[in-house]
What we know:
Layout: E1 3-6, H1 9-17, H2 23-27, E2 30-33, H3 36-41, H4 48-58, H5 65-74, H6 81-91
Parallel strand pairs: 1-2
Amino acid sequence: MDKIIISDTSCLIALINIGLLGILKDLCKEIIIKGRTVAKSYNLKIIGTIGVLLLADQNGLIKDFMSTIRLLVTKRFRVSDKLIEKLINKYGSK
């Protein structure tokens, strides 16, 4: 991936809180920070923190996706029960 756009600081803070800020530089060559509204006005795809972690998992940068999600939740990152259920159904509950 050439670049990733961070729409607000919540993704950065979440990755710092779980010790994974470094995965951003491993995922892309360039990191751009823009507001979500500005990103949408350029028709940029928005994936959020979970999406960044999923990309990291797909690229072998994290060992266990669901364990990382659980760690994120213990650090007070808000994830809906419905999304957690979808993630468990798709990726298992390891």
